[in-house]
Amino acid sequence: MFRTRTSSLLIYTVLTASVVFLAAAISAAQTKYEPTDTYQVSYYSNALITGAPDGTVHIVNPGTAVTKLNLDGKPLNGNLCAQIYVLNNDEQEVECCGCTLTPDSERTISIDRNLLGNPINAGIVTHDGVIKVVSELAPGKGYCQPETEGVKPTAGLRAWTTHIQTASDTYVETEEEFGAAPLSDNELFWLQNQCSAIYTSGSGHGKCTCGYGD
Q: CA 72: distance to chain centroid?
């Protein structure tokens, strides 16, 4: 009887530990990139409507990724990519692009012109949708590549956007900061994979542009 209880307790302990380990592993895989300012999301509203004002996205590199300075105190690194993914309200990615931001710089991006002005398919663009920004370390050479799978995010970027709200017979413009969210491996792969398909088959369509600044 004593052996049975000991054996049962041992099996229970092992099973419990296995379940806890598996749950922790799944959780880690689902929310691997959780530092603030790694993955930010917001929405656009009333875009591409005649008579409605254009919405704007502002992205800032606060310089927190800088690790090296020259003798004059100027950054030698810390450039970040704002990998931007624009989705319609039917969850389809319509445009994507990568924008370089040097330390302490800002980019101003038009939603109508820069983020929705060159969709992969004009027929699927909706007046409301989602804007996602993944912060990544900029490559030493070349340009930001939002379509490249396997690139790991680096925290740092901050973003704000204006929303065009309907008010009676007119429009009201509001502004808010993008919301930080945990980023899973699957979500990152999906965003990069869809962007890769756009870049491969779009013949130039589906590539958004970075506005001005920096």
A: 33
Query: Backbone dihedral region of 101: left (phi > 0), alpha (psi from -120 to 50 degrees) or beta?
Result: beta
For residue range 128-174, list pLDDT tens digits in order: 999 999 999 999 888 999 999 888 899 999 999 999 999 888 999 99
Treating both helix axes as pointing N-terminal to C-terminal, what angle do 185-201 and 2-30 enclose, rounded to 10 degrees?
40
- Whole-model pTM? 0.83
List the alpha helices (DSSP H) in the chain: 2-30, 185-201
Domain locations along the chain: 1-30, 33-213
Q: Which of 168, 146, 172, 169 is nearest to 55 (CA)?
A: 172
What's the burial of 84, exposed, middle or buried (CB within 10 Å: 0-12/13-18/19+)? buried
Q: Which fold has domain 33-213?
A: Hypothetical Protein Tm1070; Chain: A (2.60.290)
Q: What is the pLDDT of residues 41-95, one digit of tens each?
A: 999 999 999 999 999 999 999 999 898 888 888 888 899 999 999 999 999 999 9
User: What b-and-e string marks burial along 42-59, b requiring 16 or more CB atoms within 10 Å of the CB?
Assistant: bbbbbbbeeebebbbbbb
**Tens digits of per-residue pLDDT, 1-29?**
444 444 444 433 333 344 334 344 444 44
